Amino acid sequence: MIQVGDNIPATTLMEYSEVEGEGCSIGPNAVDVIKASVGKTIAIFALPGAFTPTCSAKHVPGYVEHASEIKAAGVDEIWCVSVNDAFVMGAWARDQKTHGKVRMLGDGSAEFTKATGLVLDLTARGMGVRSNRYSMLVKNGKVATLNVEEGGKFEVSDAATMLKQARAV
Questions:
Q1: What pLDDT band is residue 151 in, cutting at 50, 70 and 90?
Q2: Exposed end of the chain (fewer CB within 10 Å): N or C?
Q3: Which of 8, 13, 46, 55 is catalytic?
Q4: What CATH number does domain 12-168 carry, 3.40.50.360, 2.60.120.430, 3.30.300.30, 3.40.30.10?
Q5: Is the pTM of this model over 0.90?
C-alpha cells in the first residue's frame, strides 16, 4: 500500500471536459498523473463509485463546499478518483456541480487504484474491483498525508480533515 513519502503512481487517469479550453478537447482526455502533479499541491480523494450513496451525499459535496478554503490553504487542485470511466465521471461532475472546484478523474481500468494498493474488491456484490475510500495530500508528486478509511466508514477522508491537514503541512 502507498505510504507517506512515496511518489504517486505513474499512471494515466481520464477526464471528461464539457467545453474546450486550455488545450483540452471535448470528450475523454488523458491526464498523466506525474506531469499533472509536478510543482503542485493536490488534494486527492478516492471513493468506491460514482453515484453511490455516501460518495454522492457526503464525500463529493464536502469537497465542493470546502473547495475555496482548501485551495486558500495552499492546495492547487482537488481531484476525485473513482474506478469509473470518464463519461460516468463527467455525468457525475454535472450532477454534483464540481466545475472549477473538483476535477473528476476516471480510473476505468483501476490502474491508479491497483498501483496505490488501495483496492476494494466488491466482486461478490456485483461491483467488481473498486477503490477504497481515502484521501491524500500530494506535494510535487509525493504523498504528504494519507487517510484510509476502515471498511464501510467515512471518518477520515472527508474535506474537513483534508482542510486541517492542508493548513498544517
A1: confident
A2: N
A3: 55
A4: 3.40.30.10
A5: yes
